[in-house]
Amino acid sequence: xxxxxxxxxxxxxxxxxxxxxxxxxxxxxxxxxxxxxxxxxxxxxxxxxxxxxxxxxxxxxxxxxxxxxxxxxxxxxxxxxxxxxxxxxxxxxxxxxxxxxxxxxxxxxxxxxxxxxxxxxxxxxxxxxxxxxxxxxxxxxxxxxxxxxxxxxxxxxxxxxxxxxxxxxxxxxxxxxxxxxxxxxxxxxxxxxxxxxxxxxxxxxxxxxxxxxxxxxxxxxxxxxxxxxxxxxxxxxxxxxxxxxxxxxxxxxxxxxxxxxxxxxxxxxxxxxxxxxxxxxxxxxxxxxxxxxxxxxxxxxxxxxxxxxxxxxxxxxxxxxxxxxxxxxxxxxxxxxxxxxxxxxxxxxxxxxxxxxxxxxxxxxxxxxxxxxxxxxxxxxxxxxxxxxxxxxxxxxxxxxxxxxxxxxxxxxxxxxxxxxxxxxxxxxxxxxxxxxxxxxxxxxxxxxxxxxxxxxxxxxxxxxxxxxxxxxxxxxxxxxxxxx
Length: 485
Fold this sequence. Notes:
Blueprint: H1 3-22, H2 76-88, H3 90-110, E1 116-127, E2 140-152, H4 159-225, H5 231-265, H6 295-298, H7 300-321, E3 326-337, E4 349-358, H8 366-432, H9 438-472
Antiparallel strand pairs: 1-2, 2-3, 3-4
Helix pairs in contact: 2-4, 3-4, 4-5, 4-7, 4-9, 5-9, 7-8, 8-9
């Protein structure tokens, strides 16, 4: 080849490489979509009453939720169960594998920055036709070749850069999904655990009531034998005793189901797992809510929705790049000879350089439709992101309200339990003194048991609401934990 032509080809290739490095990137650059302005404080968070009569939202860093948020309950059994989730839960492992796939997709996209190189030897034996007007007709010969080829499509319009941007955003969204799955599984485990312990409280209460009702039954039987009470009193006392005993047995159904659910969450067969009875006597911890503006950085589902919006924006650039020509550089070289003795020698060398540019002139509106589709998808993801923010504020407010109202209800219910206990004591003394029938005692017993079970149920609901609040607040996660990619 003429050296002048070779230099021109190399200059053209160098120019294209320079343009590829500093070339433009078509499509809009991403900016996080605006959302509803967060209020300065949560509406349902009750203000404290300091001595000076003023208050503000406290934000000490040592009061913020940490990574192992379940430790705030100071329950060793719960901590031990939570430690098994990351090791054995199959749903979490599946989410982790999905994230790893998304991470590798970033490497796949980045590979398009570089040329593709191929090389390999080839050996062939050929015979030309004897019935063609050629000097080589009827000739049999062999060839030995060793060739390499380079093929590169420079990123002149930023299509590869947008693809990498999209893959990176999708991988970060997958990482946020993984964090959200883990948060959901751990909060579900905590809720099931507290529900189970709440049922243990109910069972302990019912067992105590059964023992008390047996004493009342024996009392009526003694009084009946002494001619002081009627057979109706005995029947009523026995009915109460058997009814409460059946309720105590029935609690076992729900308890077994929660126990099986916990076994599944920690990745063990339900048939080989059991938890000993343990009534719910823990102190309800205070959950640091922080300020609403922090919520956008602390919820993995919000982060995932925002990252998918970034990926959708990058797709617009990828679609717009299709309007521009595809420029391809290629080159090859190697050795070729008819005999193996002269295969790898200077005269057997060969090489080629080339470039091409292809522009689509007509596609019946396909590129326009794909670009419009990408813009519509971006609008969809933006709406999803904004809605996820609104849902997050609602969930926090819902659970703050639940905790506040349940605290008030618990105080009132405690007074109701105390009153029902006094009522039963008075009715019992009146019955023993022969002033009233056993029906009054029976009514007082039923009222007391109802109030005690309601009190235990409120306690369980308080713990469940606290777990839901922690989940709504992000469980100590924040966007700084997203991988940079």
